[in-house]
Specification:
It contains 13 helices and two strands, in the order αααααββαααααααα. Helix 7 (about 110-135) packs across helix 9 (about 160-175) and helix 9 (about 160-175) packs across helix 11 (about 190-200). Mean pLDDT is about 85; it is low at about 1-20. It starts with a helix and ends with a helix. The chain has a two-stranded antiparallel ribbon with strand order 1-2. The protein is an all-alpha fold and about 270 residues long.
């Protein structure tokens, strides 16, 4: 009887099973977001494993694995007699897919996408140049197929975004540079997010954007590296312009209700 009681006690029964089942990925995300949003600043010592366990109703093993995951991404370091400390920002692996997603959840959207375009403008024009030099019929066919999908779904929606994403990733892969290919995979989620806003910003100008994509494809197909680089630069600049116009419209729309409310409030005060 005593043995059965021990098996069903809160410490070793359902409560323990619940803690053990808490995914360490969820814990890593929750702590990672708190680091990225500044809740825990660089140099700050994090709560210990026991405290995190109580916070997330998780086992210490799950917490320990989550902290190891975050250390592997450069967000924190564990030191004897000190515990887990948030690392300086320059050590964070911002190209890690998880870190990018957490960063997206904590950073103003316009700044996030603008920062992403800074990276893209440094990489993709050179990638287009390399693609024009290293092209093969199969590689060109893949880029062309992605462009044809963009034409087919020019009306918008997720299919257009997926086709646009495939176009850019195909160019990175055509470079036959494994580092560039890996970069494309790492920022996949962020590219998809930025394309969504870019195409919204390009409403009414889709023909022009498609023409710019077609020009990049034509230069790569013709084996003209300088022209491919120039057209890709122009495409990215135009896309960033689309984004800024989109965010400007969003800010203007958001400001209208506030302005109307202020006018009504002023009118009420003037009558009193």
């Amino acid at each position: 009887m005593q043995q059965n009681l021990r098996r069903t006690s809160p410490a070793s029964g359902p409560a323990k099973a619940l803690r053990a089942k808490r995914p360490r990925g969820d814990i890593a995300r929750a702590i990672g977001v708190r680091i990225l949003d500044g809740t825990y600043a660089p140099g700050q010592v994090l709560p210990n494993e026991a405290e995190w366990g109580r916070t997330f109703t998780a086992s210490r093993t799950a917490v320990r694995e989550a902290l190891k995951t975050l250390a592997g991404k450069g967000l924190l370091a564990s030191r004897p007699k000190v515990g887990s400390t948030v690392e300086p920002r320059h050590r964070w692996n911002m190209l890690d897919r998880d870190v990018l997603a957490w960063h997206l959840a904590t950073t103003p959207i316009e700044k996030f996408v603008t920062d992403l375009f800074v990276l893209r403008r440094m990489v993709e024009p050179q990638a287009a140049r390399l693609a024009a030099e290293a092209r093969t019929p199969a590689m060109v066919a893949r880029i062309s197929a992605a462009y044809e999908r963009m034409e087919r779904f020019r009306g918008g929606g997720h299919d257009l975004i997926a086709a646009d994403l495939a176009f850019h990733l195909a160019i990175l892969e055509t470079t036959v540079n494994h580092f560039l290919t890996s970069l494309g995979n790492l920022i996949h989620t962020s590219l998809e997010f930025s394309f969504q806003y870019s195409w919204q910003g390009a409403a009414g100008m889709k023909d022009e954007r498609l023409h710019k994509h077609r020009a990049v494809l034509a230069a790569i197909r013709a084996g003209k590296p300088q022209l491919a680089e120039r057209h890709m630069t122009g495409l990215l600049d135009a896309s960033l312009g689309d984004l800024h116009r989109y965010f400007k419209r969003q800010k203007k729309a958001a400001a209208k209700p506030a302005a109307t409310a202020n006018r009504k409030k002023a009118h009420v005060h003037s009558r009193s």
